[in-house]
């Protein structure tokens, strides 16, 4: 068997294993879905009137705020899902089964690839579920054609892949599940500090750099542009650059940590 | 079978047995240290195919480290010599080594989140068996290790003995020629332990080589063709159980007293005896022969002392172990 087909076969076996875990124990995934859905409902129905006053010079109504909010909530869903990835990777590494995998003549990277692909699939599913809630409470895209939808989907997958590789690294260096979930906290905090809820222009000057120089804001602005027709500008390239950068960094970090000698 | 006993790891000559190619595991000068903590201080191994080899030692002796190195989990120090597993060089061709071995570690290497059967099918997939072949192998091994009833339950709900059986069953899916068992019976109840012994004996009937670590001398005695005693990172002695027992010349006689005065006079009459003042017991080296026993009893008689209990102790591996490790520690 060639090394590529070996890699594919073993990775798909590991993927099946991870999906089996997710299917057998859906509570972790579902719990993580709760946060974005709750924030969505809270910001629309409780804070909605006040928040919308700050959008578009004060003339916006609640439905305009839903439109503003949803792209950020969708990316936040991914951030939440990968916290679960960090926890499950960390759990996995404390199990003897991974030591067994290391003593088998299988493709070395397949354990991590299985986690990553499984997690990206879970992210996509979570985004679809949260997106469905958003549509149910009145979110509609504006003039998004098939190309824009495709680009939006591509961005979500790319973003999920990038965050997942970072989360896998976090899971690998964490000694236990609690530490993994703490280490992965930035994945949930960063979107709160981004343009997800209010435009960067509306933030105090000293805080703006925090919101600007992080992956969530350009990704959110790009998604907004694709779904709602707002101006994307340089955010598109920035978002892609962030994703590729984080994915490469996370991949290098995770694989070097995983392949390091055991104790 | 020769009756030679290798007392230390130093090789008297450059002897490389002509049977080197038939060795399942061979290692020269296997070394490993973590930082400045020396764990393995140059051990040599030569394990013929189809035999059970036991690496015996207390906790922290380096047994698990040896298994981890030989099973490609951890790399040995650069100063180590040649290590070959199933004829493959550990350093240059670890994947070939992995294809030939199966490992059951000290801590169960099963996936607790999925069922026993799913664990078996996972192994079948990773060994690239066809779906049909995988199902057949899984079913056969689950049957063989008495796990059919539990096959559909999550492995995390299994008892210790069941987990260990599943663990070994998973190891066997790939039909490995060499199996490493790191303390396979630690933490098992006596019944499961005996079941496990039966399983291990059965493994070698198919020509498989078993490398076993244990801290139980009884277990090594029970199972192994050859035993190496690991102490402070070195092999203190190696040989068959019988050869090792011969290392301790004779056993001993124990005399127990209930009267402290009688104990004290006996200790004076037998000055060469080891004293245990707390339990009022004397211990004399002896081969247990009639002549030696009579001489001891004569000396007690002439002093007018009667022991409350006399037991003759023939040497077992415990004695070997304590004798060897005591020497090493004293050095």
Give keywords.
A: 263 residues; mainly alpha; B: Rossmann fold; Alpha-Beta Plaits; 2 domains; six-stranded mixed beta sheet; four-stranded antiparallel beta sheet; disordered N terminus; ABC2_TM (chain A)
How many runs of DSSP E, i.e. beta strands of chain A?
Answer: 0
Rg of chain A, nearest Å? 19 Å
CATH topology of the largest domain in chain B: Rossmann fold
Shape of chain A: elongated
**How many strand units of chain B?**
14
Order of helices and strands of chain B: EEEHEEHEHHHEHEHEEHEHEEHEH
Which sequence of SSEs, written as H and E, runs from N to C of chain A? HHHHHHHHHHHH
Oligomer: heterodimer
Average pLDDT of chain A: 89
Could you give a short account of the major beta sheet of chain A?
A: none
The end-to-end distance of chain A, rounded to whole angstroms, is 31 Å
Percent in helix of chain A = over 70%
Mean pLDDT of chain B: 85
Please report which band the strand proportion of chain B falls in: under 5%, 5-15%, 15-25%, 25-35%, 35-45% or over 45%.
Answer: 15-25%
N-C termini distance of chain B: 32 Å
Proportion in β-strands of chain A? under 5%
Structural class by SSE content of chain B: alpha/beta
Instruction: Give the uncertain stretches of chain A in residue-range form.
Output: none
InterPro entries (chain A): ABC2_TM, ABC2_TM_bact-type, ABC_2_transport, Nod_factor_ABC_transporter
Domain ABC transmembrane type-2 (chain A): 27-261
Protein name (chain A): Transport permease protein
GO molecular function (chain A): ABC-type transporter activity
């Amino acid at each position: 068997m060639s090394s590529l087909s070996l890699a594919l076969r073993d990775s798909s076996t590991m993927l099946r294993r991870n999906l089996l875990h997710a299917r057998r124990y859906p509570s972790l995934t579902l719990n993580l879905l709760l946060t974005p859905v709750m924030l969505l409902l809270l910001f629309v129905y409780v804070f909605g009137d006040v928040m919308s006053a700050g959008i578009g010079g004060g003339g916006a109504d609640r439905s305009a705020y839903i439109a503003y909010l949803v792209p950020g909530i969708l990316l936040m869903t991914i951030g939440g899902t990968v916290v679960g990835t960090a926890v499950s990777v960390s759990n996995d590494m404390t199990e003897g089964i991974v030591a067994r995998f290391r003593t088998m003549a299988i493709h070395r990277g397949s354990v991590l690839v299985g986690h990553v692909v499984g997690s990206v699939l879970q992210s996509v599913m979570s985004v679809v579920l949260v997106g469905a809630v958003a549509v149910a409470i009145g979110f509609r895209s504006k003039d998004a054609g098939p190309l824009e939808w495709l680009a939006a989907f591509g961005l979500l997958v790319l973003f999920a892949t990038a965050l997942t590789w970072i989360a896998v690294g976090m899971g690998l260096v964490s000694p236990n599940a609690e530490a993994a979930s703490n280490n992965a906290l930035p994945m949930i905090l960063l979107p709160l500090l981004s343009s997800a809820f209010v435009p960067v222009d509306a933030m105090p000057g000293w805080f703006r750099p925090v919101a600007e120089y992080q992956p969530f804001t350009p990704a959110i602005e790009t998604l907004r542009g694709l779904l709602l027709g707002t101006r994307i500008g340089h955010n598109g390239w920035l978002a892609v650059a962030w994703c590729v950068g984080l994915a490469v960094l996370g991949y290098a970090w995770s694989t070097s940590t995983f392949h390091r000698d055991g104790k | 079978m020769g009756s030679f006993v290798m007392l230390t790891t130093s090789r008297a000559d450059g002897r490389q047995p002509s049977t080197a190619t038939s060795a399942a595991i061979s290692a020269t000068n296997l070394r490993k240290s973590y930082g400045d903590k020396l764990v393995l201080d140059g051990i040599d191994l030569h394990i013929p195919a189809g035999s059970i080899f036991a690496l015996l030692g207390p906790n922290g002796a380096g047994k698990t480290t040896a298994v981890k190195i030989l099973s490609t989990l951890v790399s040995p120090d650069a100063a180590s010599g040649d290590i070959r597993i199933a004829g493959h060089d550990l350093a240059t061709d670890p994947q070939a080594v992995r294809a030939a071995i199966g490992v059951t570690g000290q801590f169960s290497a099963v996936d607790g989140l999925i069922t026993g059967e799913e664990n078996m099918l996972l192994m079948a997939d990773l060994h690239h068996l066809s779906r049909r072949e995988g199902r057949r192998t899984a079913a056969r091994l689950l049957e063989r290790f008495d796990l059919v009833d539990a096959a559909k339950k999550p492995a995390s709900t299994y008892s210790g003995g069941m987990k260990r059986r599943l663990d070994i069953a998973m190891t066997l899916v790939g039909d490995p020629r060499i199996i490493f068992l790191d303390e396979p019976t630690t933490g098992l109840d006596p019944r499961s332990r005996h079941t496990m012994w039966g399983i291990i004996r059965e493994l070698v009937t198919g020509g498989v080589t078993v490398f076993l670590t244990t801290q139980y001398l009884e277990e090594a005695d029970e199972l192994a063709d050859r035993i190496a005693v690991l102490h402070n990172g070195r092999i203190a002695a190696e040989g068959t159980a019988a050869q090792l027992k011969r290392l301790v010349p004779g056993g001993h006689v124990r005399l127990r007293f209930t009267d402290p005065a009688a104990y004290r006079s006996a200790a004076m009459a037998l000055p060469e005896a080891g004293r245990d003042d707390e339990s009022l017991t004397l211990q004399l080296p002896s081969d247990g022969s009639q002549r030696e026993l009579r001489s001891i009893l004569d000396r007690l008689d002439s002093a007018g002392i009667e022991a409350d209990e006399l037991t003759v102790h023939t040497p077992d591996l415990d004695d070997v172990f304590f004798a060897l490790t005591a020497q090493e520690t004293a050095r």
